[in-house]
Design brief:
The chain is an alpha/beta fold. The chain has helices at 29-38, 54-62, 76-87, 100-108, 131-142, 166-177, 189-199, 213-223, 237-242, 254-265; strands spanning 10-13, 20-21, 24-25, 42-47, 73-75, 93-97, 112-113, 120-123, 146-149, 155-157, 162-164, 182-183, 206-210, 226-230, 249-251. It is globular and about 60 Å long. Bound molecules: magnesium ion.
């Protein structure tokens, strides 16, 4: 059965490459949010980036004319903290390789930031990484702490360069411990489960909108939800057609998606 936009009631929206690129808003972002609100489509902005808090993402989006509440943003750090809450009670000791936003997300759930004596090690993207941080995390994992990664992205694309991402730090800890982490972010199912929970959404009425085949689209397929790709980010139409799990729907950009969605709803 062909996928219909008309049946989608919940939308997970990737940000980078969809709503903006770098510091620049992409066309149609404010219109997409307005469209969702007008039609009662509940949305959640879902990102693998754990280095900003929801409040910081709200401020960045606001500067691009996209106005959403903090509750509409789920970072891989927030999803990791929410997931950890299902495994361990508040007060549990957690060692963190990551930035202030990740520590903030864990502390908001009542976790206590600790060193080698931690029961869990959470590793996210950390642009202030040091040998000491890697050493402490490695020793905690060797002592038996459960190893969790916010996301597995090995690299992070800048305008002109490709730099190490959270997955590169995970790889260092894997090399040092021979322990594989439990990874939360896209394309893994944990962040999708957390997002569906947060929205109270049913899978058959939910779609992910993203620009990247190996995270958004692959993750959406694994999670059993509809996948919508826009061609304003990393992946191209040719790559999409050749991908192991091609997206259900592909649009050049957000204005084309919103126009098609309006037609599907007869509005
Ligand atoms: Mg993206």
């Amino acid at each position: 059965m062909p996928v219909s936009l008309a049946s989608i009631r919940y939308l997970l929206i990737d940000m980078d490459g969809v709503l903006y690129r770098g510091q620049t808003g992409l066309p149609g972002g404010p219109e997409l949010i307005a469209f969702c609100e007008e039609h009662g489509i509940q949305y959640l902005l879902v990102t693998n980036n754990s280095t900003l808090t929801p409040a910081q993402f709200v401020a960045r989006l606001g500067s691009m004319g996209i106005h959403v509440p903090e509750s509409a943003v789920m970072t891989s750090g927030g999803a990791t903290a929410a997931y950890l809450s299902t495994l361990a009670p508040a007060g549990t000791r957690v060692n963190v390789v990551g930035e202030a936003a990740l520590i903030d997300a864990l502390e908001q759930r009542g976790f206590v930031i600790a060193g080698r004596n931690a029961e869990y090690v959470v590793c996210g993207w950390d642009k202030g990484i040091t040998f000491e941080k890697l050493k402490t995390a490695c020793l905690a994992i060797r002592d038996g702490a459960t190893f969790i990664g916010t996301n597995g992205d090995k690299t992070y694309p800048l305008e002109k360069d490709i730099i190490p991402g959270a997955g590169s730090l995970l790889a260092a800890l894997v090399a040092a411990t021979d322990v594989e982490p439990l990874v939360v972010g896209k394309p893994e199912p944990i962040i999708f489960d957390q997002a569906l929970n947060a929205l109270g959404a049913s899978r058959h009425e939910t779609a992910i909108l993203g620009d990247r085949l190996d995270t958004d689209i692959l993750g959406g397929k694994r999670a059993g939800i509809t996948t919508i790709m826009v061609l304003t980010g990393i992946s191209s139409a040719e790559e999409a057609a050749a991908f192991e799990a091609p997206p259900d729907l592909t649009f050049d950009d957000l204005p084309a998606l919103v126009e098609a969605w309006r037609r599907a709803l007869g509005s």
